[in-house]
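During the reporting period, we have paired protein sequences with backbone structure tokens. One record among many follows, to show the layout:
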Amino acid sequence: MPTLRSSRVVIGSEIRPATVRYESGVILEVGTGVADEDYGDLVIMPGLVDSHVHVNEPGRTDWEGFETATRAAAAGGSTTIVDMPLNSIPPTVTVEALAVKRRVASPKISVDTAFWGGIVPGSSAEVPGMVAAGVAGFKAFMVDSGVEEFPPLSLEELESSMGDLAAEGVPLLLHAEDPDLVLEFESDTRSYGEYLASRPTDSEVHAIDLAAAMAERSGAAVHILHVSSGEGAERVGSSRWMTGETCPHYLVFCAEEIPGGATPFKCAPPIRGGDHRDALWAALDSGWLTMIVSDHSPAPADIKEVESGDLARAWGGIGSLQLRLQATWTAASARGYGPEHLAGWLAENPARLAGLAHRKGAIGEGKDADFVVFDPDGAETIRGADLHHRHPITPYEGMTLRGTVVQTILRGQTVYDRGDLITGTGLMLERNG
């Protein structure tokens, strides 16, 4: 049976020497001894799980697409992604739309792929059927999503939906910003400071407070998406009903360093000041936040307003699916964290949220033989044109990030090897547990 070995294998919360034996894509044993493939002191981690990816197909395939997104995932060490219900057309808010998305994705995916459903006004009757069809959970917005086919829920609709999902035993993923506290630009639409002021910390914090109260009344499991502020992370950590995530761009960049007109940095909620960046790292350390996901949400250059630098008009999304591991490691290693911390934040906890932990997110007996072989001491200067995303626009352009992905192995088959993509055959996954 195939075996691989390294002096540094991430097993649970430890990093230690180990030999991993697997067969037919499933891990049979984690032990000791010689191996077919000995990686020396390179780090072997579980294949990463990115539970927040906007693939945008069908309907906006010119923004991304399953072929390019899953190839970028493989190149970045992710063996599983979970696709968001927007910005595809139709959005994944009905059983029929889910079937359409799966039919489109099936011949194109190079890594394993699961799907979130969505809840918009009037779609709650679809929830039981979509749960039966295997969606990982449901996403909703409290604020304008940016696309007309995925409108936000009112507070009454949101609380009702929480009750529905509590009954079904699946999580609600929530974009938490209070629309009443989101402001217009004052004058200069190229000013990052004005964009930041238009989506203040209070908007996120107040929305989380409202959601926490609803979650407690309904008994729903609520996951707060892309937490951007220290106060928001504290609110998530203080609620027994909530979990939360953040993203590499909130952990690497800070508002003070973003120049005017730099639309590749635009996302919602916005990248905040350095004090918030420090607080988010503290929240990960304390367990208030449990995962780091890409929130990969690319768009073509004209929609990102790259030439004009108009932050009011630019699409609010960052393309970073391929760079999640390197960007996170660059910042985490500088703060004294090790690969064992990354495995929890980038693999184990996202797998648990999506109901995939029975087979994904960890190296152990009975799990899928998914691995990323990582050189933590390598380095790479990022050029958007070299990435496998559909569009080369990235705020990491020209940065030297620490660490390099050496190999990505999906269910025992190598899908990325030292710069070369090898066409993989991804599976479509359903929630289980």
About this structure: The first helix runs from residue 66 to 75. The chain has a mean pLDDT of 97. The chain is about 25% helix and 20% strand.
